Amino acid sequence: MIEYILEALFLLGSWLIENTAPTFVGIIVSGLGAFSAYVLWSWLHSPHLTIEKVSQTPLIDPENGNEQRSTRVSVNNIGTKAAENCQGTITLRVSDEDGVIRSITRAPWIPTRSELTVNDNDQYYNATLPANRSKKFELVRQYRNGNVKLDARSSGRRFVRTTVESNWHSGINERLNTAFIESAKSSPNDIADTSATLDWSEVRTANWENCILTLEVETESARPLTAHFDVSLGQKEWLVIEPKEQKTRRKIGTKFYKKLNWFLL
Q1: Is residue 38 exposed (0-12), middle (13-18) or buried (19+ Cβ within 10 Å)?
Q2: How far apart are CA 150 and CA 196, in angstroms?
Q3: Quick one: which of 9, 24, 108, 247 has the most CB atoms within 10 Å?
Q4: In whole angstroms, what is the distance from residue 203 CA to residue 146 CA?
Q5: Exposed e or buried b per residue across 50-84, where buried means at least 16 C-beta atoms within 10 angstroms of its C-beta
Q6: Rounded average pLDDT over 21-41
Q7: How far apart are CA 231 and CA 208, in angstroms?
C-alpha cells in the first residue's frame, strides 16, 4: 500500500515541478517531503497482525472422559502499535453431494484460563492486542459425536444448505446473493436447510478438498488480516485444519516488521 502512495506522490511532485513557477518549487517539494515522511511514519507506527500457529486442542469432560476438539488460531501483533478493537469473522463454505453448506459467524476470543479450564461463557468478541502480544481465536469446535460448530459460545442456527434445485443456490466459489430468516427448526419442505451445527453425516460426506474456510480479523489503524485454511479428516475422523501460505504482499510486510522488531529490541 505504502509503495503506491509514495509512487503517486513522486508522480504528482514531478508534474508540479514541470508545470509550476520556480518560486513555488521549493515550497511544493518541502510539502510533499513532509507528507511522505508522515505517511511513512504512520505506516511504520501501526499494528500488523499475523497468524502464528493453529492447534487442535482436546477438551476433556472430567466427569466421563468424553472428548471434544477445539481448533485454535493464535494471532500475534508484530507491529509497533496496539491493535485496538480486534474483531474476527469466520466464513465456511463446503460442498456436500448436490448442495453447498455455508456459514458466516463471529470468531470468539479465548481467555487465558481456557488453556486449562474451559467455560464458553467467558469467551468474548472484541480485544486489544498490544505490540508484540498474541491472543487466540477458536475457529472450529468438534464434538464427541462428530458434529461441528462455529462460535460455540452462542446459540442459534448458523449453517445454511442449498441445493442446485433451489432458485437461490450459488456455487461454492460464489457469494450467495440472498439471506434466510432464521427459524426455530427446519422441515423437509423448507427451501433451505438451516441448522445450529454441521451434522456428523454431512461432515463425513463433505468435500473438504475444495472447502473455503477463512478468518478475517479487523482492527483500527491497520489493514485487515485474512487467513485461509486447508481442511481434511484426520485420525478418528477429527477435522484437521492447517493455515495456507499468506499472499506475497502480506508476507513482505510480516518479514519487514519482524526485522524492525529485532532492530528495536
Answers
A1: exposed
A2: 9
A3: 108
A4: 8
A5: bbeebebeebeeeeeeeebbbbbbebbbbbbbbbe
A6: 51
A7: 6
C-alpha cell of 109? Answer: 476470543
Helix residue ranges, H only, 159-245: 200-205
Report d(CA 18, CA 29) in Å as an integer.
Answer: 12
**CA gap 80, 40 in Å, rounded:** 13
DSSP string, 14-28: HHHHHHS-HHHHHHH
Report yes or no: 50 and 78 within 8 Å, Cβ to Cβ.
yes
Q: Cell 453448506, residue? A: 101
One DSSP character per residue, 44-93 reads: HSS--EEEEEEEEEEEE-TTT--EEEEEEEEEEE-SSS-EEEEEEEEEEE
CA distances from 51 to 77, 84, 203, 214 (A): 9, 17, 26, 12
| Predicted confidence (pLDDT) at residue 264 exceeds the cutoff of 50 | yes
Residue 25, classified by CB atoms within 10 Å of its CB into exposed (0-12), middle (13-18) or buried (19+), is middle
* Position 38 confidence tier, pLDDT thresholds 50, 70, 90: very low
Each residue's pLDDT tens digit, 212-240: 999 999 998 788 999 999 999 998 899 99
167-202, pLDDT tens digit by residue? 888 899 998 888 888 877 777 777 788 899 999 999
